[in-house]
Amino acid sequence: MDQAMKLTQVVKDGFHREQSTLAVLVDFKAVYDKVWRHMLLHKLKKHGVDGKLFNWVQSFLLQRNIR
Question: Which of 3, 18, 40, 65 has its CA 20 to 30 A from that of 11?
Answer without folding.
Answer: 40
